[in-house]
Structure formats: structure tokens, C-alpha cells
Amino acid sequence: MIRTMKYHHVLISLLLLYLLMPLLVTGLYAFAGKWTNTLLPETWTLEWFRQIALDARFLHALWNSFWLCAVSVLLSLVIMLPTVFVVTVYFPRWEFLLKSTVVLPYAVPGIVAAVGLIRAYSSGPLAISGTAYILIGAYFVAILPYMYQGLRNSLLTLNASSLLDAAEMLGASKLAAFRTVILPNIMPGVTVSMLLSFSVLFGEFVLTNMLVGGQIETVQIYLYKRLSESGHLASTMAILYFTLILIISLGLTRIGQFMKKGIRL
Amino acid sequence: MSYLQLNGLNKQFNGTNVLNNVHLEVAKGEMITLLGPSGCGKSTLLRCISGLTELEQGSIILEDQEITALAPREREVGMVFQSYALFPNLTVSDNIGYGLKMKRMNKGDRTRKINELLELVDLSDKAQAYPHTLSGGQQQRVALARSLAMQPKLMLLDEPLSALDAKIRKSLRLQIRQLQRRMGMTMIFVTHDQEEALMISDRICVMHNGRIVQEGSPEEIYSAPRTEFVARFIGNYNVLGPQEAGRLEGLAAQPGISYALRPESITLLPVGEYAMTRPPSFSMPGYPSSSMSEYPSSGMPERESSEMLGHDSFGIGHDLAGMPERDSSSELGHDSAGMLRRESGSRPGRESVVRGYDLLGMSRHLPPAGDSAALYWPGKVSSVMMLGNIVRYGIDVGGIPMTVDTLAGHGPFRPGEQSAVTLRIDRSQCIPLEKDGA
């Protein structure tokens, strides 16, 4: 028994090491001063962070990424939550339609989608190519699978329809039932879906670069541009970016827990 | 004017009739069971009454008020679900208080009411627990309390015990029945379990293919099934189709009629032996049994007293004390009856009859003279099953499989497997059945 336990620990440690190694090394590089022919850096410095902090372009790119992703995820939530709810609870027969729509982003490679979108929207009545609108639209489609699966699974595990029935029998209107019974219970699932979508979008490069690469600079695009200049700066940006995602994740998880406990009628 | 009236309810799903012109009248304080196999429309009927499913036709009147078009929350009807449907984000107290909060009852009254209900369902110590930490039985009690909190005019229970294990199920159904009586609550209880239905109902409605095929007290439903479907669904009736009935001596009084024979109304006798008495019938005084009126029902007047004795031991407390031992009646009769040996098959004048049944070897099993009220058939024991207080025999009667129940440990005759026996049944215990759908 103990031997098998040890075996598991070793395996998990190796896996974690494998996963965290790049991050660890990037982290080291971000803080490294002189690092030429030794195993670990010879000197440590915060110079790269100082440079980044003073770099208005980076901060601007970060902000761009943040609001583009946030708006896309919120838009998706506002549209997908009622849609998935209504279809799952009241029209399960239509689910196949939603399912097949939702897997489309998997079927079409980003680059193909980007080319198609540019051709479709660069002229005509909706000439939004190169603007934030087209990007948000594309982002919306890109995160459909995550939002759909997450929402649907939490509704199904909740057995939403019978809870709604019960609430209605106890005198709640449909809206009140949704607000007091369904919403608090699917909050963890919604949070996970949003987190996942946000992270995916934050790291998105192909679509962003092709659709708005010349007009709007996101973190990924900026990172790509500076990559060739200085490895230290790129590492620092990567670490900052990772930290940001971590903070957002923790924050959202907290909010999710708070919502589940906190919402009481 | 009854308390609840269902008039001509119709409901279709994808072109098939789920409810087919359902009529039902329920008195105040009555416990009605809708009994039937899955897919018979019983749950749909319940959901239509609750308003969760819309009707196509018909009207529902509750306490002189037409509620057909009202939303579920305006009907003052409570419902308990098979899946409990407790709100997982709320504590037991908050679950029970949910409806009261929706009613905007103030906090003090609400707390008092919740505490009362917690006590009623004996869960005061779980007030602050979350539903997922409770057992199934406890969860269903919370659901019950949650519905009761609204003081509904009518309580609907949709297979509330089906998800529970046997022991909890048995105790909870008694609790529900006690609660219902104490509060004078009108309840409609949906179940597919006939034992459950017989035990807790004032009245049972047997449903089949979207219709109520028979309604009556548990005694009526059990002792006098009207159609073949009801007979097959209730208890372990031996249901004989017209052809099978025709092959058994004396049974096919009318051609094309099916018969139901209760397994405990058949007595097993050693071959060539005949009991002089007939076992007491199940039917109670005051409840008409559907025995065939064309047969004399009292072949042995001097035995009537012992028969009544059997009744008395049977009739007590059918509702709360649980179903009485079904077999006590037949065994009582059997024991009190002296066994009388007789030579059989020696009477001229019955030749034509004898010849007809020689194919089955029935000539040895001719009834003794004077016992025209009973039928005697030869059989061979094919299986013996011990069911606790009941021993259940599977018997092959000329190719027709039959079930015979006897009380374990009683009576002198205990045939083993493969032994030949004579089956004795009272003519009045052969219940003629109507065709399904009639």
C-alpha cells in the first residue's frame, strides 16, 4: 500500500516538474542579471520589471487584451446563459442544433476562420474588419464550446427542471425561481466556464493578429513583436501575464464561492 | 359537490393520448392513489393537476374554484417529487421556508412555522444542514415539510418513495398516511407499487393507457379486479384467458371470458382427498364481490359461521395496520375443516363430463357429491418457494401454470416438488373479468 502511494507521489511530482519547468526557467530569466555560463544566474535584477512598468505600450496592450477578453466573455455569458438554460430545460429536442453550432470553432482552424472573416467583413454593409467589433465577434465564437459545455453540465447536474418545478409549486414566479434557485447553484460552473474562456482568449494569437494585428495591440501581439529584441523582457512579460491570469482566476473563484453562499433570495 | 373534480381530462404527447378522458372526484381529506405501470399516465395526470403540464381538454375544479387555467403557483396545490427536488444551496430550514418567503411572510412567523414543521417531520436537529448531507428518507421528509408549509388545499405526491430503500419506504409511507389523517389533508399519491397503494389509500384508481380502468377501496380493488389488466397488476392473481379457462373443468360458464383466481383462495389437497368445507372467501360483508352470481354461493350453510370467523380475523385495520395476512383466511378454513377421504370417479350420470376431461386425467379428481360450490382440478407441483410467512407453490394444472399461496407452517398437507395434488377452489372465488379497454 505504502509502496504504491510512493509510486503515485513520484509520478505526480515528475509531472508537475515537467509542467512547471518552463515557467520556472522563464521566471528565473525575468529576474536574471548576468547569466552566461553558469547553471543559475550570477546576478539578480528587477531592471526588466522596471522597464516594463515604464513601457506605456505594454500597459496599453495589457489593457487592450483585458477589456477585449472581458467584453467578449461577458457578452457570451449574457447570450449563452439564457439560451443554454432555455434549450436544456424547456426544449431538449433542439439541443442537437446548439451542439453542432458549438463544435464549429473546433472544426474550422483559426487561420481559415480569420481569412473568411476578413473577406466577409472588409466591405459591404458591415465593414468592421480591423476594428474591435470583429474581434469580439470572433472571440465570441471561439469560446462558444467552453461556455456551452460548462453551462450545460452545471444545469444538467443540478437537475434544473425539477428544481424549477418545485420552486414554482412553492409560489415562485419563473424569474424568481431562476434567480433564487438556479443561478446560485450554477454559479461555480459559470465561473469555471468564464475563467476558461478568459484564459483561452487572453492567450489567443492567430485570430487576433490576423483580424486586428495592425490596428489593436494586445499582449500577445506585443509580446510577439518584442520577442526578438530581448529575451529578458519577453520572459518578464510572460511572467506578468501569467501572474495576471492567476490573480483573475483566484478572484473569480472567490466570487463564485461568495455568490453560492451569499445569494439568498 | 366534491372537493376536487377532474372532468374529461385529455392530454397528448406527440400524437399519442397520455390522458384519455379522465374523470375523478375526490372528497376532502381523502387519500387517493393513482396506481399503474410506468407510462400509464399517472404522473402526467398529477402534473396536469399541479399545472406544471398543460391540459388539452377538460377542467379541474378545486374547492368550487376552476383552476384549469391558473399558473401552478396560484393553485394552492403542493407537490412532492420522486427526486426530492430540494434546493441544494439552501439549508433544511431555508428549504422549508422558501415558499413562506415567497409569500412574504415576516421573519418571526416564518421561523416559528419552520420550527413547527421541523418538529413534525422529526428533523429539528438538522435545521442548519444542507440537503446533500441528509439521507434519502430525511430529504424526502424535508420536501414533505416544505410542501406542508404552504398549507396547500391539495397535496400531490409523485412516487415519493420510489428512490428509497425498502425499509425506509415502508416506514415513511406509514408516516405520510398518519400525517395525512392527522391533518385531514387531501392527497393524491402516485405509485407503481400495489402493496404501497393497498396499504395507505382510502381509494385506489388503477390507471392503464391514460384511463382510470378501475377505482375503489383497497378491498374492492384487491378482491374484485374488474378487468384482466387490473387482475394481472394487482397481487399475484392467476389470470386465465378464455382458452385456458375452457380447459378447466367447470370454469368456462360463459365462453370467451377470462378469470382471475387469487393464489390464496386455492387449497391444495392430496390426490383423492376432498375437504368438505370451502375456504372462506376474501370478500368482506358489505363489499360486493364480483363472484359469479349464477353459482350458488352457499353450498354448505352450516359452514357459514366458520367463514365469518375467517372474515373477522381478516377485516381489521386494513388501512394503517398494513395489509393483513392474505393467507390467514384460506388457512383458517382449511384447518378448521375436517379432511374427508372419498373415492372418486364412481358416479354414473356424470359420464359426459368425465369424458370431456379425461384428456387431462381429471376423472380421478371429480368433486365429491354435494360439493357443487367448489371446483377440483388435478395438478403437479413444479416449484415451491418460501416467502417468509407464505409458501408459494407453482403448480402445473394440465399445462396451465398456476400459483398457490399457503401460510407457512400451517395445515397438514405440504406437498414437495413433483408431487401430484388436487386443487380446490370455490366457484365464488373464480372472478370473471371484463376485457381490457372496456
Layout of helices and strands:
The complex is a heterodimer of chains A (265) and B (438).
Chain A: H1 2-31, H2 47-54, H3 56-89, H4 95-102, H5 104-107, H6 110-121, H7 132-142, H8 144-158, H9 160-169, H10 174-202, H11 206-212, H12 219-227, H13 231-262
Chain B: E1 4-13, E2 16-26, E3 31-35, H1 42-50, E4 57-62, E5 65-66, E6 77-80, H2 92-102, H3 107-120, H4 136-148, E7 154-158, H5 166-183, E8 187-191, H6 194-200, E9 203-208, E10 211-216, H7 218-223, H8 228-233, E11 238-240, H9 242-247, E12 258-261, E13 266-270, E14 273-275, H10 304-315, H11 328-336, E15 339-341, H12 351-357, E16 374-387, E17 390-397, E18 400-407, E19 420-426, E20 430-433
Parallel strand pairs in B: 3-8, 3-9, 6-7, 7-8
Antiparallel strand pairs in B: 1-2, 1-4, 4-5, 9-10, 11-12, 12-20, 13-19, 14-15, 16-17, 16-19, 17-18
Helix pairs in contact in B: 2-3, 2-4, 10-11
Features of this protein?
heterodimer, A: 265 residues, mainly alpha, MetI-like fold, 79% helix, B: 438 residues, alpha+beta, Rossmann fold, 2 domains, six-stranded mixed sheet, 12 helices, 20 strands, elongated
- DSSP strand count of chain A: 0
- How much of the residues of chain B is beta strand, in percent? 25-35%
Radius of gyration of chain B: 26 Å
Give the ordered list of helices and strands of chain A.
HHHHHHHHHHHHH
Helix/strand class of chain A: mainly alpha
Shape type of chain B = elongated
Helix content of chain A: over 70%
Most strands sheet of chain B:
6 strands, mixed
Mean pLDDT of chain A: 86
Report what the structure shows:
- The complex is a heterodimer of chains A (265) and B (438).
- Chain A is an all-alpha fold and 265 residues long.
- The longest helix of chain A is centred in the first third of the chain and has 34 residues, at 56-89.
- Chain A has helices spanning 2-31, 47-54, 56-89, 95-102, 104-107, 110-121, 132-142, 144-158, 160-169, 174-202, 206-212, 219-227, 231-262.
- Chain A has one domain (56-262): MetI-like fold.
- Chain B folds into two domains: 4-223, 3-Layer(aba) Sandwich (Rossmann fold); 228-433, no CATH class.
- Chain B has helices at residues 42-50, 92-102, 107-120, 136-148, 166-183, 194-200, 218-223, 228-233, 242-247, 304-315, 328-336, 351-357, and strands at 4-13, 16-26, 31-35, 57-62, 65-66, 77-80, 154-158, 187-191, 203-208, 211-216, 238-240, 258-261, 266-270, 273-275, 339-341, 374-387, 390-397, 400-407, 420-426, 430-433.
- In chain B, helix 2 (92-102) crosses helix 3.
- Classes of the chains: A mainly alpha (265), B alpha+beta (438).
- The interface between A and B is medium-sized, with 22 and 26 residues.
